[in-house]
């Protein structure tokens, strides 16, 4: 499928451009995006390229990917020029060029990786961020934006308005599943420490349960599985009661939030990226997809692997007021977002 020939996807990109506050400040800049083939990273690359093309903004985009095969699979049909950069978060940086902005979105972000490769998840997050920050410091990069996660909050009681950036809950340090939230906490602190010690300009965004047409093949999060089943005309399978509350955010809104924080955010601070109109249970998210796709939700008993892959966090609801105060506002409600995904992927 050539996603760039899809009218719905191109309209989403234009909406993201319109939602990004101050996007004109990216004109004539060089921007590196790590994790450029991931759900969020690839959409950000496409947004910047679309803006540069439509508005003749002369932006040079470097897509940092693990290998050329993954880059080609994702961007070979892209009508705009994007520069491939070989990048493996478990290895030292090989490239050497001046960059204005770095969006660091690389990292294992799906349950199978947490279960099977917890060590690589920790080392990858921490070492890669250290290397990126060192690179930025030595090359006088204007700003690094670190894409963190709503999982940093751990288990915390929150009302429907969600947790704010200064609040933190408990994370079990003796559970290997905690490799992800704990390493994200560490890398956030590494960023603010670089800011204090070296003056490196770093801003952090914490997305939560982002979904969209750019989901990857390896992504086995619940929302990604639900979307794939719907596209294939299969029943959507729930392997729990699905009563956990989640803040969902369509990738077009998420990308606009990240870019808005990149341009307008305050250094050494974090911003939640979530849609207050898209807070619902996992079961209701599945039912909404099924209703729109014309399929059904069925229950199955979970395997031991399914249980191991589950997030231990019962409710993940983020308060995005701080990002709202930068002028960002999400456009896609849950039904609009799901309809867009299904229209694009079908």
Number of domains: 1
- CATH topology name, in short, is Rossmann fold
Low-confidence stretches: none
Please indicate the percent range of residues in DSSP E strands (runs of 2 or more): 5-15%
CATH C-level label: Alpha Beta
Q: SS-based structural class? A: alpha/beta
Compose a concise summary of this entry.
The chain has twelve helices and 13 strands. With 346 residues, it is α/β, with parallel strands linked by helices.
Describe the structure.
The strands form four sheets. A seven-stranded parallel β-sheet has the order 3-2-1-4-5-6-11, sandwiched between helices. Strands 7-10 form a two-stranded parallel sheet. It has 346 residues and is an alpha/beta fold. It contains twelve helices and 13 strands. Helices cover 41% and strands 14% of the residues.
Quickly list its features:
alpha/beta; Rossmann fold; seven-stranded parallel beta sheet; 13 strands; 346 residues; two-stranded parallel sheet; globular; single chain
List the helices and strands and how they pair.
Blueprint: H1 7-19, E1 30-34, H2 39-54, E2 60-65, H3 68-75, E3 83-86, E4 101-104, H4 111-116, H5 118-138, E5 143-147, H6 179-198, E6 202-207, E7 210-211, H7 222-231, E8 236-238, E9 245-247, E10 249-250, H8 251-264, E11 270-273, E12 279-281, H9 282-293, E13 297-299, H10 304-309, H11 321-324, H12 334-345
Parallel strand pairs: 1-2, 1-4, 2-3, 4-5, 5-6, 6-11, 7-10, 8-13
Antiparallel strand pairs: 9-12
Helix pairs in contact: 1-2, 1-8, 2-8, 5-6, 7-9, 9-12
């Amino acid at each position: 499928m050539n996603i760039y020939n899809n009218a719905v996807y191109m309209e989403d990109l234009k909406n993201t451009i319109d939602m990004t506050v101050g996007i004109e400040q990216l004109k004539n800049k060089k921007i590196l995006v790590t994790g450029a083939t991931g759900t969020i990273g690839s959409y950000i690359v496409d947004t910047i390229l679309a803006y540069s093309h439509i508005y003749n903004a002369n932006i040079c985009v470097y897509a940092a990917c693990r290998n050329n095969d993954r880059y080609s699979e994702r961007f070979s049909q892209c009508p705009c020029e994007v520069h491939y950069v070989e990048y493996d978060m478990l290895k030292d940086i090989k490239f050497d060029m001046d960059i204005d902005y770095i969006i660091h979105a690389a990292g294992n972000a799906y349950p199978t990786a947490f279960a099977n490769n917890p060590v690589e998840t920790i080392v990858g997050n921490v070492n890669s961020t250290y290397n990126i920050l060192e690179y930025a410091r030595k090359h006088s990069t204007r700003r690094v934006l670190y894409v963190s996660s709503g999982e940093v909050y751990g288990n915390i009681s929150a009302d429907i308005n969600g947790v704010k950036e200064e609040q933190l809950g408990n994370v079990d340090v003796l559970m290997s599943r905690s490799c992800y939230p704990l390493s994200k906490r560490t890398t956030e602190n590494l960023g603010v420490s670089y800011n204090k010690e070296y003056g490196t300009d770093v801003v952090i965004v914490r997305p939560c349960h982002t979904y969209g047409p750019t989901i990857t093949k390896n992504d086995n999060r619940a929302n990604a599985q639900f979307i794939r089943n719907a596209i294939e005309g299969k029943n959507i399978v729930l392997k729990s009661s699905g009563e956990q509350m989640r803040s969902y955010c369509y990738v077009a809104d998420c990308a606009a939030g990240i870019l808005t924080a990149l341009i307008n955010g305050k250094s050494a601070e974090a911003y939640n990226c979530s849609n207050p109109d898209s807070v619902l249970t996992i079961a209701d998210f599945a039912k909404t997809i099924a209703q729109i796709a014309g399929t059904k939700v069925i229950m199955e008993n979970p395997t031991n692997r399914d249980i191991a892959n589950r997030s231990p966090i019962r409710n993940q609801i983020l308060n995005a007021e701080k990002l709202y105060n930068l002028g960002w506002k999400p456009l896609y409600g849950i039904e609009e977002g799901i309809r867009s995904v299904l229209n694009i992927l079908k």
